[in-house]
Amino acid sequence: MQLTGGAHYPVVVVGGGQAGLATSWHLTRRGVDHLVLEADRVGSEWRNRRWDSFCLVTPNWQCRLPGFPYDGPAADGFMLRDEIVAYLEDYSRSYDVPLVEGVRATGLDDGFRIATTQGAVTADQVVLATGPYQVPRIPRMAERLPTTVTQLHSSQYKNPDHMPAGEVVVIGTGQSGCQIAEDLHLAGRTVHLVTGSAPRVARFYRGRDVVAWLDLMGYYAKGIDEFDDVDAVRFRVNHYVTGRDGGRDIDLRKFALEGMKLYGRLVDADQTSLRFAQDLSKNLDHADAVSEGIKDSIDAFVAANGIDAPDEDRYRPVWEPSSEPEALEIKGISTVIWSTGFRRDDSWIRLPVFDGRGYPTHHRGVTSVPGLYFIGLPWQYTWGSGRFGGVADDARYLVERITEQRAGMHWIAGLPRKTVA
User: Fold this and answer.
1) Superkingdom of the source (predicted)?
2) More exposed terminus of the chain, fewer Cβ within 10 Å: N or C?
C-alpha cells in the first residue's frame, strides 16, 4: 500500500508492531477506515534490535494477538527471534491491514496533521503505537573510556563473534544484560558483569512455569489502578530469566562459580579503569529475595486453593562474593556493552500530553487531547500491556473509546447548525 499525501483518514495508527497491528485488527472488525504507518517493516524492532540467539522469556501460549493466538507445536516453548518476526509477519497477512511500510511520522500537530517522510496526512483520531524502546540510553560516562575500547548498546549486540577478541564488560543486569552476558559466557568469552538492582524470577516452580502460576493467580489481569505505588510499578525493571534451551533460571551466582566476574553498580570511569559501588552482595541478595517472594505467593495460592502441586526445595545461594571489587582495569578489555535501556523520543509530537518527565499522561491510553491515544506502553493498564499476552485487551479498550468518540462526532455533525453550542 502506498501513502497518498494530503489524504484524510478517520484514524491513523502510527507504528506497525504488535500494538499497532492489534489496534488495526479491532478497527477492521468494527469497520473503521484507518491507516497504519510503519517506519520500517513489520517486526523491525525484533529483527533489528535483538541478538541472534534471542528468544521470548514468556511461553508461546502467551502470544494472544487478537484473532491470531499462537497455534504452533511448542505452546510451552519460547520463540526465537526469527520466529517472532515470522509470527508478526503472518499476523499482518492474516487480515486486510491497511499498512504502509517504510514511512516515518516526523511531526504531529494541532488538527492531527501528521507529517511523514512521504508527505502529510490528517486524521480525526490518532493512535500512537511507537513503543517504549525508541532511543538507546547510554550514560555520558561512556565518553570517558579510551577509544581502544569498542562500545555497543545492547540493541547493537548480535553474537560473540560479532565483537573483537578479548574480555567483555556487560553493564546492567536487566533482562538484556543478563542474557547477553550468558550468551558470551557460553561461548567461552571472559565476561565482567556489572550488576544493578534488577530482580530475578525462577523459570519453573512446583511443576509449572512461574508465568503459568502468575497467570492462574490473576496477576497479569491486575490493573495498574489496583496498586498503591503506580509510578513504582510502571517504571520498575523487568525480572531477569530466560527461555533459552527450553527455559531456565539466570543465576548470576552460578555464573560466578563458572568464572564470570561480578561487580557492584558502576559509579565512575576514566581512561584506565571502571569503578564500582560496594553493593554486589546487596544486589544479588535483592534479586534472590524477589524470586523467593514470588515463590511464597505461589505456595500461599496452592495452599488456599487445595491445588495438587509437587513440593520443591527452595533456592540456596551457590556462591557468595568474598570481597566487593572496587575497580577494574580497562587494560585487556576489548568491548563494553551498555545494557542500560532506552528512552522515549516524543519530540515530534507537538501536543500537550506529557508530564514533567516527558512521559505521556493518560488513563488506559486515553489522553487529555480528545482523539489522541497511546498503546504499547509498559504497564499501560496491566503487566501485559504492549506484550503479546495483553496488548489485545488494551487495543480492544481503545477501539471502544475511538468508536464512542466517532459516534459522538457523527451525532453532532448531524445536528442543525443552530443547535450546536
Assistant:
1) Bacteria
2) C
Cα distance between residue 157 and residue 152, in whole Å: 7
Q: Which CATH code of 3.30.930.10, 3.40.50.670, 2.60.120.260, 3.50.50.60 fits the domain covering 8-134+344-419?
A: 3.50.50.60
Structural contact between residues 89 and 43, judged by C-beta atoms closer than 8 angstroms: yes
> Do 137-338 and 8-134+344-419 fall under one CATH topology?
yes
Say what the pTM is.
0.93
CA triple 377-117-27, angle to 5 deg? 45
pLDDT of residue 134: 87
Helix or strand holding residue 7 (H, E): none
For residue 365, CA distances in Å to 27, 124, 368, 380 come to 16, 17, 10, 6
Distance CA 346, CA 359 (A): 9
Rg, C-alpha atoms of the chain = 23
Predicted pLDDT of residue 419: 30
DSSP assignment of 39-70 equals: SS-TTHHHHHSS-TT-B-SS-GGG-EETTEE-
337-364 pLDDT per residue, tens: 999 999 989 999 999 999 988 899 999 9
CATH of domain 137-338: 3.50.50.60
Split at pLDDT 50, 70, 90, the class of 412 is very low
Grade residue 235 by pLDDT with cuts at 50, 70 and 90.
Answer: confident
